[in-house]
Sequence to fold (70 residues):
Amino acid sequence: MSAMINKEAVVTAQVIDLVLRERALALSSREWKHRLAGYGYAIKETDHGQVVETLPDRVEVGVLPVPPEV
Fold:
């Protein structure tokens, strides 16, 4: 018997990891969003926080965790 894996959740986690890694590497918010566009993703600001979405279709992928305050 094999374990069931939710592939959509795995892909979402991988995309969120990519976005967070790129945020750590970028020197500004503008650069970060430009780098994400190169991967085919965008950030949408909402009342619930930042949402990652695909380009050009604007399909929501997931919500980003709130960065820790410095």
